[in-house]
Amino acid sequence: MDGRVPVSLITGCLGSGKTTLLNRLLANRAMSDTAVIINEFGEIGLDHLLVTTPTETTVLLEDGCICCTVRGDLVQTLVGLYKRRGAGGLPPFRRVVIETTGLADPVPIIQTVATDEQAARVYRLDTVVTLVDAVHGSAQIDAQDEALKQIGVADRIVLTKTDIAAAQSVAALRDRIVSINPGAAVLTAVHGVVDARELFGAGLASGSGAHDPERFSRWLRHEAYVAASAPEHARHRHGGIQAFAAMYEQPITGSGFATWLTLLASLRGPQLLRCKGLLNIEGRPVAVHAVQTVIHEPVELERWPDDDRRSRLVFITRGLGREEIERTFDAFRLAIPRVEGAPRTIDPAQYAQFLDAARRFR
Fold first, then answer.
1. What is the domain-level CATH number for residue 276?
2. What pLDDT does 3 receive?
3. What is residue 338's DSSP assignment?
């Protein structure tokens, strides 16, 4: 069982309503077991603050939430919270929510949580929540690379200010969002009101719902990517972003896939907004997830979520074509075949194809 504390991000452009949403969440008793990391206390309404101030940068709210500012290194803040919880200096929070700045690229925070040696030992990435302003969202998508990236890496997308935006504009914006990230659930929040239970819990952790077929299906959402990759949806692509799905009939070698994904993330990471999938690794079901250069630890499932034994991968890319991904993947996935009772070998023709694919990444 994965006992690490789940960490969720709330991101979005300036004016998208992050502070309003967070204030609502802090007032919700369902969030009372939450530690909240924000950029500045001044943006958050702390009228319900207790007199207790454990440290200069940590406050305990009436509802039990722990609220911090990031004045130093994020790792130090996260590890410090965890140590103080273990020592009894803070309530036993069960999740952490980080609010980013409006111009923030969420990927470095994702990378910190997922790969830092100290943080990853006790925390795991759960949900990336991106807020999109229904009034200005389309213009921000056109003008700001950060807006595209925030949408592309999201698990949940929350449309705000829909009460003051034209219904036709809201519908068009929703279509744009779905074309960029068909795998994200799109919610609506008016004045910050949204069901907290729908915001979080999107991550796939070993022993934490990974073997629930319904939850796994919501996490992967392969069908949504299949629909988005249809030719008739090509006109909806924005900023060179493509969302598509791929399926493979034969089992894949773990070594070949690991080599391929590592090369893809390291050499073309800025163009790989997201990759998720369920792979048939030599007969075993394995869930994989990557965000740009960040490759999350694979999760081997106890059983297949359905009767389908094909490998399923979904992608959100920018300036990285489907044909290039599929061509290189075909070379790597069987590059080091495993023969029962014999050492791992590689066919010379496959090896030549392997090297050619590696050169194409550059």
1. 3.30.1220.10
2. 84
3. -
Residues 29 and 121 in one domain: yes
What are the tens digits of pLDDT across the range 256-278? 888 889 888 988 999 999 999 99
Position 59, amino acid: V
Number of CB atoms found within 10 A of residue 360's CB: 13
* Residues 185, 245 share a domain: no
Single out the residue in 173, 199, 225 at which a domain terminates. Answer: 199
> Which H or E run contains 12?
strand 5-12
Is 113 within the bounds of a domain? yes
The total domain count for the chain is 2
Q: What is the DSSP letter of 270?
A: G
Q: Are 326 and 294 in contact (CB under 8 A)?
A: no
> Residue 61 has what DSSP assignment?
B
Domain assignment present for residue 207? The answer is no
Other CB atoms within 10 A of residue 323 CB = 8
- Asked if residue 27 lies in contact with residue 19, where contact means CB atoms within 8 angstroms, the answer is no
pTM of this prediction?
Answer: 0.85
List alpha helices for 3-57, DSSP H.
18-26
DSSP label at residue 75: H
Q: Which amino acid is at 123?
A: Y
Instruction: Kindly state the average pLDDT of the residues 311-320.
Output: 94
| Domain interval for residue 176 | 5-199
